[in-house]
Amino acid sequence: MEKPRQRGRGNVCCLGVASVLVLSLLSFLIEGISWGDDIQPVIASIKVQGNRRIEESAIKFVLESKVGEAYSPSRLSKDIHKIYDLGYFKDVKVDVSDGPSGVTLTYRVVERPTVEKIVIMGNEKIKTADLEEKLGLKVHSVLDQQAVQEGIQNLKSHYREQGFYFAEVESTLKELVGNQVGLELRIKEGDKLKIEKIQFQGNRLFPEKKLKGVIQTKEKGLISSILGKDLYRDVLVRDDQMRLQIFYQDNGFIDIQVGEPILQINKQAQKVSMTIPLKEGPQYKIGKVTVKGDEVYTQEELANELKSYMGSIFSRSALRQDMQHLSELYSQRGYAFANVEPMTEVNEASRKIDINFEIDKGQKIYVGQISIEGNTKTKDKVVRRELPLKEGELYNSEYLKSSEDRLKQTGYFEEVKVETQRRPGENGVVDLTVKLTEKPTGNITFGGGFSTSASILGQVGVEQNNLFGTGLKANLSGQLGGRRSRIVLGVTQPYFMDLPISAGFSLYDRFAEYPSFETNRLGSEANVGKHLFELVQANLGLKLEKVGLDEIDEYEIPRMAGDGTAKLKTRTDKKTRETYLVQRRATRTILPNDQEENSSTSSIVASLSRSTLDNFLFPTQGSRINLSTELAGGLGDNSFYKGELEMSQFIPLAFIYPLFPSSLWQKLSLRLRGNFGMGGGLGNTGFGKKNEGMPLYERFFLGGDNNLRGYDFEDVGPKARIERFHCSDLVKTSEGLKNEGKNTPCRQYNPIPEIISGDAIGGDYSALLSAEVYFPIPLTLPYVKAMRGVGFFDMGDVFAKGDAKDFFNIFSYRKSMGVGARVLTPMGPVRADIAYRLDEGEKRDDQDQEDQAGRIKFHFGFGNSF
């Protein structure tokens, strides 16, 4: 069957014009023959013919000609155009016939076909669903040739954005029954066009290497191929032109011109060489910098706040930042609508630019009404107490930003936005609207996993952070693991009795396994807290706990030489099931002789903390500082002091970009971390007999996935020296240990004691320093919200009281480095690291011989480490 000829809008327009001419001639004949000059014909009826899908009433609705009105030939032309504008017809004609009652108008229409199906073929690299979205055509829609061509062009553009520079799209329309058509699109994707070489033409000051670091597009290479940066994409190239423009203008070249790239395409090899022409012009420096207008600050104060200063290279970005910063400074003093205009004067002869900031501070602005929207659960007072800005007070932009930050930090809201509106008729007043989107604040969690520090673990928890919309926090959680188990019940009111003071109470039962002992701690803690300054929180609490210390049993037996007694202990080898005697000697620390298996502790705990992290789970900038102290004595058995300082700083590395231009820096963030601790016994103070030394379980330990990676869990620091004497048939009697059936002492079985690996016994001082560089990992995985990689370097150590001098010798610290990944899941952050220990393994008197081996460690854990 012969394929019917397709007609587009051009044919339709020609038909429309021809129809108008015919109607004009027809009206002339009718007027000249049928009626006299004084008689106007009346429209007796209007008919529509040829319509199948479109209702007749819909067509008549757009007509200007109406039944009963006077006939007008000029209206017929407008009627035809309006029917065409409906978009459903490819041909429209009108017949005019005379009758006894008046004129009859018959509109004859030919409907456009509908697109019954759309078939895309030949695509292998891009999903059909993505192409259908880019095409923009819908099944059962009226065929529009112009829309089809636009859709085809969209597909080609999409392929070029993905690197398929030579992709082609061919279209075919097939007629179907019932005035319907099928649209077939055949795609020839071709190969991706890779960039073989990038050159610059006209660059004088900056070498090509530096300019290549400015742009996103890269030459073909291993890393660029993995990241897909070596593909030629029109969108990225246009963005690179803008990047070069900004880079030059920020380095004093205000007349820079970046031309269109010159492409040399090797179609057979699917490669392209790109040359970017540049016209740099002269480089300008800053001459005078002045600030004129309304003075709220002194000239010296403002000059110290500006990035633009005399003699520096002119930068448009710095100029914009200075303008915004000056506006911010004035708004902090109540001038919310201060106008700052930077005026520049270019001296081409001296190649200097004078800058004058003209400031119109306007009038002081006060806060009017504060409205809250979107808090369907949270009470108004819970929101208002987080707002530093109050009704009637002087406007302060810093407080406005702080209001948003504090509301976000509550964790009650998905989105927070504070909008300002000038009050009509009162120029000095602005009303604030706090727009909130609440999120669920209650959680029931079940989970399990594996951690190198806690072995296999399971956890369950119930938590509500905004109970009854009052801000009250309540939680009950439990965790069961090989080395760590806990049950905690806690309640906290952030604003106790509507005062800016938090109050909390908790009960807990914790089990912990250390290298040489185990602890069971049952206790309670009550605390109060207050914001001393913005973002600075102080807490004071009282802790009472009962601690059970589970160690190896001690027995009195004769010394080998027969002179007196010594405290020895028994231990059973888990592999050989052999029971042997051990004598424990601490080389650089002395275990408390009076440390009892069960003891109580009453202590006062205090802390100061400050956090400016942009995201608690996946921070990229900001800092966190926490200083905590504990003083034990009073009614408990233990008497000691303990202090810890924890610091973390996240720094986006985008500031390196002007020095070493590369888009890589804008994606990296650096984390610097320092944790320090010290403690000791206070002797026999308070009421009753006290354990004089610092309890074993309160000492400092390092090693594992939370701190010093590359080492076993809490295995860094002072060690106990253990001597092992082999015996056989050991039995426990009321008189002590005896060799049943043997009358000879143990010494004759092994005359020379065997020195075996000692267990970590903790220290009185600890130090940990760490540097981490985070980079994004662009992978999409199920149940993964975000993912990033990390490279790290750790160094730290634990010291006994006699080795305090080594605390300041960082070169003697244990060191490790490695790489890892951080994955944000619905259950929280997951950490995985591979660490390489950098120590050569020289043996210290108090260190384990096993430290010589196993320099590569794998660490895995849940949660963040601060």
What do you see in this structure?
- The model is unreliable at 1-37, 552-594, 724-757 and 841-853 (pLDDT under 50).
- With 866 residues, the chain is an alpha+beta fold.
- Strand 25 and strand 26 (579-586) form a beta hairpin.
- It folds into six domains: 9-111, Roll (Ubiquitin-like (UB roll)), CATH 3.10.20; 115-188, Roll (Ubiquitin-like (UB roll)), CATH 3.10.20.310; 194-279, Ubiquitin-like (UB roll), CATH 3.10.20.310; 285-360, Roll (Ubiquitin-like (UB roll)), CATH 3.10.20; 367-438, Roll (Ubiquitin-like (UB roll)); 554-862, Porin, CATH 2.40.160.
- Helices cover 16% and strands 43% of the residues.
- The longest helix is centred in the N-terminal third of the chain and has 25 residues, at 9-33.
- It starts with 8 loop residues before the first helix and ends with a strand.
- The relative contact order is 0.05.
- The chain is built from twelve helices and 39 strands.
